[in-house]
Amino acid sequence: MSKSNFVFVLDADLKPLTPCTPGMARSLLKSGKASVYRRYPFTLILKKKVDTTPAPITIKLDPGSKTTGIALLQGSKVIFAAELTHRGQTIKASLESRRSLRRGRRTRHTRYRQARFLNRTRPKGWLAPSLQHRVETTMTWVKKFIRLTPLKSIIQELVRFDLQQLENPEISGVEYQQGELRGYEVREYLLNKWDRKCTYCGAENIPLQVEHIHPRAKGGSNRIYNLSLACEKCNLKKGTQDIEQFLAKKPDLLKKIKAQAKQPLKDAAAVNSTRWALFNRLKETGLSISTSSGGLTKFNRTRLGLAKTHWLDAACVGQVETLSILTEKPLLIKATGHGTRQMCRTDKFGFPSRYVPQNKFVHGFQTGDIVKAVVTTGKKIGTYVGRVAVRSTGSFNISTANGLIQGIGYKNCVSVHKKDGYNYGF
Fold this sequence. Notes:
alpha+beta, Nucleotidyltransferase, domain 5, 21 strands
């Protein structure tokens, strides 16, 4: 039987108490001593005031470009885990789309809006919207956990390790390329870029070797875009062949490798751009905050024999002697946004295509709410739980784990969780 996250508990004055086990939560609900306060993350509220001092909780963060790992620990016990998926790429694509539509309108004989890209000044510490979003969503959830649990300290993975700097504080310049760390950062990057698999056969969980896509014997360079990972068998088989010759009978794999080899370092750049901004925002919470390195995180995870996941990486951040994993099902949080304030939708050419009703609520529901629909008659008999898309007719669509269910009447729906800009799963 899989172990679930602990349940957050508040007293009658909304004071956060020590989280309890799911079994204890069921007992409190069954006896009528508590009620459900929030569904995601699952939180109970007691019907009386409690004066005891709760046990302190530590939150650990492993910030990432696409997903941030979150772990709550009571001492050495991991009692709650979550993985927060950001929507930075969606924001970037939306901004680029709007920009292209504006530029298109300026070239047509339509109402002209003068360009305004030179009349603004960026404040100190400005981040691009897609990067600022990563900081804001992480802070949103840190503040939620502060309200729901007795948090006392925060540990953030801030920087990659630098063993040469630790051993020789005077090291600089070209010396970095000639010490014990030579090639290590490159190998770590390649492991992430190629998903820790052999580039050619897809084998994993075996020793991998750094391999030149265009062989050195034929003029290939050591630039990062010319490096990949291969198992010993594939590396010897390829030898000094060009990749086109080696994969002549596998055109799809050849095309995929060439495309992946040219991928930029944007994920690493995104983390580097936001890590200090997040650290400064975390200091504003007033909690005790400390930082750690990615090298120490990997060392702890390897020593404890844990799998490579975002939430386990978060649990291994900082100084760790032992870990007791009391949960196996992290809460999967996906940022979906709060919709748009745009009242007129446009087609791909920028022309109006449809208008949006001013009233977002229909019979007490709005698009993005998580609802439970129980249908007892008709062709769609069953129980459906998912995000709802409202219609002014009262006939809603529900996105469930098994697909989209259309035409569900509002009278069959009961609200489970109000829209808050996130989607949840396990």
